[in-house]
Each structure stands twice: as C-alpha cells, then as structure tokens.
Amino acid sequence: xxxxxxxxxxxxxxxxxxxxxxxxLAEKYxxxxxxxxxxxxxxxxxxxxxxxxxxxINTALSTQSETEVKAFHEIVKEQTKHLIYFQSRALxxxxxxxxxxETATEISEVEAHSRITARNKEIVLGKEPMxxxxxxxxxxxxxxxxxxxxxxx
Length: 153
Description:
mainly alpha; 2 domains; HTH psq-type domain-containing protein
C-alpha cells in the first residue's frame, strides 16, 4: 500500500467526524479498512448531526427560487459573522478578566469577575430561558418555610 499523505489523513478524519462510514472512506481513498480504523480510532462522529441538519435545510430550500436561496445564504452569512465576532471578543474579554482576578484583593473585584464571566458565558453558550426558570424554581424549592401550628390553651 502506498504512503497516505497527511492532507489525505486529515480529510479522512474530517469526513469520519462528519458521519462517513469507515467502509466508505476505505473505498473512496483506496486504502484498507483497517488503516481507516487506525486513523479514526477514538474519534467521535461529532459533526454527523450537523450534516443531517444541513441536508434538511438544503432539502427545504430546494423548493425556493434561486433569489430566495441566495438571500437565505446572505442572511445566514451575515448573522454568523456577527456571532463569531462576539464570541471571539467574549473569549478575549474573559482572558482579561481572569488576569484581573489573579491580582484581585477585594471581594468586589471577585464579584466583578463573576459578573463578567456570567455575561461571557451567556454570549458564548447562548441564553436558555428554560434553564434559568428551572434554576429559579430549584432555588425557591430549596428554601421552603415550614410553619407549625400549635394549639393555644
């Protein structure tokens, strides 16, 4: 068997992570399935769900006009650009806050770090209103007040 180039190995791993089967990769790149197993050992197919979602989107768009499809892709591109910008800025902001925490001497500085961290987490991971409601309910349920009635004589 001929030596497999590093670029080809990267492609095989990427396609496997996107959901391709080991057998199909072996056939496509004309290598043994054992070698594909060796290359992909321990890799999760973490992008397979994204591929399924993209296929569903492409299928839904197939009934649209070319102009509508182009408009769709332009809006997605613009929103993605903004999202990536804010996520990268939040990560830079978090690094600065962590550096600031290293020299913190007052509790107010630690609290400021907590607020910055919470805001950055929200930017990067997104808001999940149901999680916030569930957390609030859990807090309310953990502080139950018990009232005992005693008889007066």
